[in-house]
Structures are given as structure tokens and as C-alpha cells.
Design brief:
Keywords: Cell inner membrane, Cell membrane, Membrane, Signal, Transport. The protein has 461 residues and is an alpha/beta fold. It contains 19 helices and 16 strands.
Length: 461
């Protein structure tokens, strides 16, 4: 390691000298505090920026020697980042927020990089689909009209209830995007997805549909076994249900909330403060990987699919991963439709960690009782800024622009960290991150204002 540091110093000097002589922008070698790193991930296609940064040498370009290690589940992954066994990880967008506010494990986790937009779907069993189809309108070709709303699932849930049977659905983690997207979709169709409380963290209080945790790779088998009647998960586990003939994806998260942020790269705040240059270098490599994944109208996606199919990464069949990663999505068997933005890694400023994205997740935590009491708008803002770190992101981006690796127009330099009000939700409710409490007031199902859960009832505090 000492030999490498010495060599790196010589190389850095050579780079400066060459740059001065030629006037060209060459890579700036940061003075790394730590060079050997271990990152965790879950076997999902949206871990792609990590795999590509490794396989294409972007980490090594920054002087980083990285090991990528799959984790058993999201809790293990988070715990290992907190205790320092992992330097950082592919995380659910809600994980740094949930940990920082103390829902579940208490730890200050931050993110300076958003890994992707979209990428999830909701799948139901064949039996449930057969019942839903009776209520879904069709087009001239006899195909279901999309997006398919939970309104068409409601009669099925009511039938289960009338027969005294629970309607069980799977999601991957209590603070997962999948949990909030599934809840959003269900509630928009008049199906109550259940509340959390201080004393009951099942999330099933008053629930018409009962949501519980299932690790992503186990979703299809759990559905096939009849333990759950549907699930929300990332790819390739919706398409796997189609290939196995055990279920039907009915809606994507692109249709629930167009271009929603999905995963982030998370590290502990302590780690970020101890290794600031290393952190910046990691973000630089990930930005380059995201660019590679989207550039030239997704021209690199077929190669990315082959990389992800390796057992070291996702380990699913190439055909299954390609079904969504190359711009299509198959719903009912044979009903393959163009969804060019099903997976977005770079365009639309996808990698920028927006405060408004963080605040949306916090509103959903409040809506369903994971944040048990009302909070001021200022609390939402302060929490978002404690966890999301666009300052680190823009430092890395500026270095890449100076090096000629990326274009200046690829980044939102002048933003205040808030997206413009968003209207592309399945229920047409608009969202403005500047007004989180006013946003919560718009929903018929969910906590708002000073409401709390007492026992199994909603009450004013």
C-alpha cells in the first residue's frame, strides 16, 4: 500500500505537469484517505452503477480498489454500513432517512448520489389477475388499458374480506420505496394499506391489504407458494413471475409516480467526515457509470445486461434482465410494451440528490405513521438537508466537467435542491416539496396535521 501511495504521488505530479504543458483537462488525483473499499448491494438490476463502475474501471481511475459484496437483505446491509463492515452500499431511498430519524435502527446515514429513477413494479398472482381483469377496460385490440389502477383490485380485496381471508402482499422493507409506492397505489384505489404506530410496527393497523416484508429474490417463490397474493419489487423479480408463469405485473412505479427516485448510495456520516476525498472519488466514479448506462440512447444496455446477469451481481437470466433494462416491460404474458424510461440512471438529472425527493419519502413515513406525530414544514426541510448532500455531489460533478468526462449541462447547478411541483402521479395529486404538510392534507387515506394512532384508531393528539 505504501508503494501504491508513492506511485500515486508521482502519477499526480505527472498529470499536473502534462496538463500544464498541453492545456488539456486531465483527471485530478484526489489525496485519498482510504483506497481499499467494500460496498454492499442487493441483487437487483438497479445496483448497476456499482457493477459498471467496477467493470469499466471507473473506480480504479480514481485510485480506488473496490470489492462488491451481495447482502442477504436490506437490514443486514444497513447494519453492516453502520458498524463499519461495509464502507457504503446500494440503499433504498428511504433507508438513510429512516435510520437518521430513528425509525428502526438509529444512525446518521447520508447520501450524495441517487442511483436511478423508476425500476419497480407491482405483480399479482394469476388468480387475482383473473378476478381483476373482469373490471379492467380494454382497448380495440382487447388488451388492458394502462395504467391499471388499484380500483380494479378493490373488488378482489373485498371478496377476500367477505370470505374472512386476509389479502396479503409483499414489499421489501418498511422504509423501502416499494412499501410507499405500493401503499400509494392501493390508497389511490380506496384500499387501506394500514398504519404503523409507536407500539405496533407491523404497518397493518386498519389495513384492507396486509403488507409484510419479503426479500426481493424470494418474491416469486413466495407468490407461487400462495403466502402472498401480490408484491411490489424491483427488477428482475416482476419479469421473473412472467417467465415462470406464476403472476402478472399490473403497474410500474413509472406509472405510479413518473421518474421517481428509487435507490441511493449511502454511507455513514461518520465515514463521510473521516474520508471526504475518498467519498468524492466514489461519487465521481458512480456518476461516470450512470452516464455510461444511459448514453447514446441506452446503446450500452445490452452489454450492461450481460454484466448484471453474472452470479456476482444479479444472477438472473439475460432474457429476464433484458426484458426491462432494454426499454420494454412485459405485463401479462405476451403483452410487452415500450417503457423506454423504466430504468433511468443519468438523464433527467437522475443522479442528483434532491431535497424534495427526500421530503416526499418523509411525507409518506408521516402519512402511514412511521413518523407518529405531526412535524412542521421546517422539520422536513432540516431532516432532508441533514441526509441528502448535493454539496458533495456537485463537487464531484464539477471535477468531472473540468476533466472533460461529462458535460456541464448534465447537472442542475442553479437548483435550490427542490424539483418543480410534480403532477405525474397515478391519482393526479400534485406534489410540491416546499409544502409537505399541505401535500399530506390532500389525501383521504393517511395521517395529517396533529393526528396520531391510539390503539387501532386515528385520533387528534
Amino acid at each position: 500500500m505504501k508503494t501504491f501511495k508513492s506511485f500515486k504521488s508521482v502519477l499526480a505530479g505527472a498529470v499536473v505537469a502534462l496538463s500544464a504543458m498541453s492545456g488539456s483537462a486531465l483527471a485530478e488525483m484526489l489525496d485519498l484517505e482510504k483506497e481499499e473499499l467494500k460496498f454492499g448491494f442487493i441483487k437487483l438490476t438497479d445496483m448497476a452503477p456499482l457493477a459498471i463502475a467496477y467493470e469499466k474501471g471507473f473506480f480504479e481511475d480514481e485510485g480506488l480498489y473496490v470489492t462488491l459484496e451481495p447482502q442477504a437483505n436490506w437490514k443486514v446491509l444497513l447494519d453492516r454500513v453502520i458498524d463499519g463492515e461495509l464502507d457504503g452500499a446500494h440503499m433504498l431511498a428511504g433507508q438513510p432517512l429512516g435510520a437518521t430519524i430513528g425509525f428502526g435502527t438509529q444512525a446518521h446515514i447520508i447520501t450524495a448520489f441517487s442511483m436511478d429513477l423508476n425500476g419497480n413494479g407491482i405483480t399479482v398472482s394469476n388468480d387475482v389477475w383473473a378476478e381483476m381483469k373482469k373490471h379492467i377496460p380494454t382497448d380495440a385490440d382487447g388488451k388492458p388499458v394502462h395504467p391499471i389502477k388499484a380500483d380494479y383490485l378493490k373488488p378482489v380485496v373485498e371478496k377476500f374480506k367477505a370470505e374472512g381471508k386476509p389479502f396479503n402482499m409483499g414489499m421489501v422493507f418498511p422504509v423501502s420505496t416499494h412499501n410507499y409506492e405500493l401503499r400509494y397505489w392501493l390508497a389511490a384505489g380506496g384500499i387501506h394499506p394500514g398504519f404503523y404506530s409507536k407500539t405496533d410496527i407491523s404497518g397493518q393497523i386498519q389495513g384492507d391489504a396486509l403488507l409484510s416484508v419479503t426479500p426481493p429474490p424470494q418474491m416469486p417463490a413466495t407468490l407461487e407458494a400462495g403466502t402472498i397474493s401480490g408484491y411490489c419489487v424491483g427488477e428482475p423479480w416482476n419479469q421473473q413471475a412472467v417467465f415462470k408463469g406464476i403472476g402478472v405485473p399490473v403497474v410500474t412505479d413509472y406509472e405510479i409516480w413518473k421518474n421517481n427516485p428509487e435507490k441511493v448510495f449511502g454511507v455513514s456520516n461518520e465515514w463521510a467526515e473521516k474520508y471526504p476525498n475518498t467519498h468524492t472519488a466514489v461519487v465521481k466514479a458512480l456518476i461516470r457509470a450512470a452516464k455510461w448506462l444511459d448514453e447514446n440512447n441506452n446503446a450500452n444496455r445490452p452489454e450492461a445486461v450481460k454484466i448484471l446477469a453474472k452470479s456476482a451481481y444479479v444472477g438472473a437470466d439475460v432474457e429476464v434482465i433484458a426484458n426491462s433494462m432494454t426499454g420494454t416491460f412485459e405485463y401479462e404474458k405476451g403483452d410487452k410494451r415500450d417503457v423506454p424510461d423504466f430504468n433511468v440512471f443519468y438523464r433527467y438529472f437522475a443522479t442528483y440528490p434532491y431535497y424534495s425527493d427526500a421530503i416526499w419519502y418523509l411525507t409518506q413515513m408521516r402519512r402511514w405513521g412511521q413518523i407518529p406525530e405531526g412535524k412542521t414544514d421546517e422539520w422536513f426541510f432540516e431532516t432532508a438537508k441533514k441526509v441528502y448532500r448535493p454539496d458533495i455531489y456537485l463537487k464531484a460533478a464539477k471535477m468531472l466537467v473540468d476533466e472533460g468526462q461529462v458535460a456541464k449541462e448534465d447537472f442542475p447547478w442553479d437548483t435550490d435542491g427542490f424539483r418543480d411541483p410534480q403532477t405525474h402521479f397515478i391519482d393526479n395529486v400534485s406534489y410540491d416539496g416546499h409544502q409537505p404538510n399541505a401535500y399530506l392534507e390532500k389525501f383521504g387515506i393517511g395521517l395529517k396535521g396533529a393526528q396520531v394512532i391510539k390503539g387501532t384508531e386515528v385520533a387528534a393528539k
